[in-house]
């Protein structure tokens, strides 16, 4: 028979999880500026004081919510990377599967992510660190995918990979509906092939030499 402390802890974890989900929903609907303790607690179905019990500030709650769902997506990508590496998948398959997962992500999570990016642009460098950590988590996933494809110096290419994915995700958010993952998969595949053939930093064939003066 479960003990009272165990039940209490389980209840607390459930409330915290509800607050994290509610924070993402509110940020996606109203932006970071519209996310208040009261609004999030009401959406989560808990007393208003619950937010301050778990989080010292509204910023901490919002960033923890984004970290929480980022970690879930990163774990999903890492599982995919391990599976693809085990069966030595071709670049086209790697590109296709990554594109499908990105295009199937909950749209609310993507909107909240971009809202956090914009909010970070208005803050000083110290306050941006949490958002930077979200970007870095996705870049590590990209490094794994690029390394499987034999891309030299994947750490240099990963930000481009993530920027391409974010750009497609932003378009999806703006249009308000899901997009076909095929064009994104093709773009990933082309990126894989081009950087595998010409390492980052090497002159690209046909590119014009910079002029001086």
List keywords for this structure.
about 210 residues, mainly alpha, Tetracycline Repressor, domain 2, about 75% helix
Note down, in words, how this protein is organized.
By secondary structure, the protein is mainly α. The protein has a domain at 60-197: Tetracycline Repressor, domain 2 (Orthogonal Bundle), CATH 1.10.357.10. The chain has nine helices and no strands. The protein has helices at 4-30, 37-44, 49-54, 58-86, 91-103, 107-121, 125-148, 154-175, 181-197. Helix 4 packs parallel to helix 7 and helix 7 (125-148) crosses helix 8. The longest helix is centred in the middle third of the chain and has 29 residues, at 58-86. The protein is elongated and about 60 Å long. 29% of the residues are buried.
How many helix segments? 9
The helix fraction, in percent, is over 70%
What string, H for helix and E for strand, traces the elements in order? HHHHHHHHH
pLDDT < 50 runs, ≥5 residues: none
Shape: elongated
CATH class of the domain at 60-197: Mainly Alpha
- Biggest beta sheet summary: none
Distance between the termini: 81 Å
CATH architecture of the domain at 60-197: Orthogonal Bundle
Give the strand tally: 0
Quick one: CATH superfamily of the domain at 60-197? Tetracycline Repressor, domain 2
Rounded Rg: 20 Å
Average pLDDT works out at 86
User: What fraction strand?
Assistant: under 5%
Structural class: mainly alpha
Say what the CATH topology of the domain at 60-197 is.
Tetracycline Repressor, domain 2
